[in-house]
């Protein structure tokens, strides 16, 4: 394949644009915000798990408190009923039984109220745990939202850079003959780098030195011949510094 030396040198311009596009894509895949988002998502999930655990514990103690409150209310109603029965009179045996039951109910009420007081204290502490856990979730959500916003801004900058470089690539590629461009794209797709300058006796694409026989062959090759590196297969562009 033949191509004007000036046209071949434009391949180096195209390669620089492609290298910048590669850097943009690499940056997009390795944004530090992406790793931090993963960290913040795990943190948020842990906070949500803590909230669920706190709410579960609070729900259990709240049910205990309501059960004890109901039992205390039942004892009080039973006491009221017994006192009304005593006030209405009756046999000595009936009054004695009622008095005994009232004493039993009083002890029962005292025990229940002591237990209820302890449960209410636990309930208050667990309610505070729920509020702290809920605040932790809110803070974790905000931290996640902040880093997501930073990621979106960084992605927008990269999208802008990519769009600019894509226009540049189309402009440079449009000046190249189709066969030469196709060869470059094919090599680049398979090798990663499609072209490199001949820098002294070294290939600018793979950085490997060419042997003497290859250099001698290049000196005898016409300037418009498209030559390739025997090591990496990239197109070798001869410049004034070659």
From TrEMBL:
Alphabetical list of InterPro entries matching this protein: CT398_CC_hairpin, Oxidative_Scav/Glycosyltrans, Zf-RING_7
Coiled-coil residue windows: 58-164
Organism name: Saccharopolyspora gloriosae
Domain C4-type zinc ribbon: 202-236
Domain CT398-like coiled coil hairpin per the UniProt entry, residue ranges: 14-192
Keyword rRNA processing set for record: no
Family annotation (Pfam families): CT398_CC (PF24481), Zn_ribbon_9 (PF02591)
UniProt KW keywords: Coiled coil
This protein's name: C4-type zinc ribbon domain-containing protein
